[in-house]
Design brief:
Number of helices: 10
Mean pLDDT: 93
Distance between the termini: 35 Å
Low-confidence stretches: none
Radius of gyration: 18 Å
Helix content: 55-70%
Largest sheet: none
Number of domains: 1
Strand content: under 5%
CATH superfamily: Ferritin, core subunit, four-helix bundle
Length: 251
């Protein structure tokens, strides 16, 4: 099995989960409803837990232990998509990001249930249920607010239009994509993107929101290989402030 291809896949998944988990946690105490405050907190906890499980798989492949990998790398060494590192903004943006990202996340884990790499296959089976809850939550709120007031529809449409190029960046292919596919580790970003489009189109068709013409959009690629926005390094500095104050300490 091509370990470099496998590690490339695991890093981008783990880094996505860690960063979006931290971003979602920033809604704790700020949610528009108590129910949503709790929901985003719960989903943030799920994401960080998923990142830990993925970093542990990487450790078994010879990478450093999870805490050091998560909190002591500079931004250029992170493989997350640019989409997840963007600030939370207003709730309409965070909700739209939740919808677009978690849909891709769910179908990625669903596809990995048949992975030839057994530890990842078993983990995908375990985590798919959590991810299913996340897209059910996102779908319900997109349908509700996408058929709501004139203001809610306008705000969500603006966030959708802004988010789509970043969301398409989720599907940036690995430099070792052919190896991932040929060795049946993962069936590839193209298939994942097709499943994602089918789902978001089906949900949006039940609202007054309009999906932009994806063929005319330019995906924001680069994040998978260290090309990030100005928002990531300050976030990493905040996340690692305690552990990096004394890297040798036993926390």
């Amino acid at each position: 099995m091509n370990n470099e291809a496998l590690k490339d896949l695991l890093y981008k998944m783990a880094d996505d989960q860690l960063i979006i988990g931290h971003r979602n946690s920033e809604w704790i105490g700020l949610g528009p409803l108590l129910e949503e405050d709790i929901a985003f907190a719960s989903m943030a906890q799920d994401k960080v837990g998923q990142s830990l499980a993925l970093y542990q798989l990487l450790q078994k492949l010879g990478e450093e232990e999870p805490d050091r990998v998560a909190f002591s790398r500079p931004a250029k060494q992170f493989h997350n998509s640019q989409f997840v590192e963007l600030p939370i903004g207003e709730y309409d943006f965070s909700l739209m990001r939740h919808f677009l990202f978690d849909t891709a996340d769910y179908y990625r884990f669903e596809m990995l249930i048949t992975s030839s790499y057994e530890p990842l296959r078993l983990l995908a089976r375990k985590l798919k249920g959590e991810c299913r809850y996340h897209i059910m939550h996102a779908d319900s709120w997109i349908k509700k607010l996408g058929n709501g007031s004139e203001e809610s529809i306008k705000r969500l449409q603006k966030s959708l239009d802004y988010s789509i190029p970043f969301a398409l960046g989720i599907f940036e292919e690995s430099k070792l994509e052919n190896e991932l596919i040929s060795e049946h580790i993962f069936r590839g970003e193209i298939e994942l993107r097709e499943r994602w489009i089918e789902h978001i189109d089906a949900v949006l068709s039940q609202t007054q929101l309009i999906l932009p013409d994806l063929a005319k959009e330019s995906p924001h690629f680069g994040g998978r290989y260290g090309n990030h926005t100005e928002h990531l390094q300050p976030l990493l500095d905040e996340m690692g402030e305690v552990i990096n104050s004394d890297p040798t300490a036993d926390w």
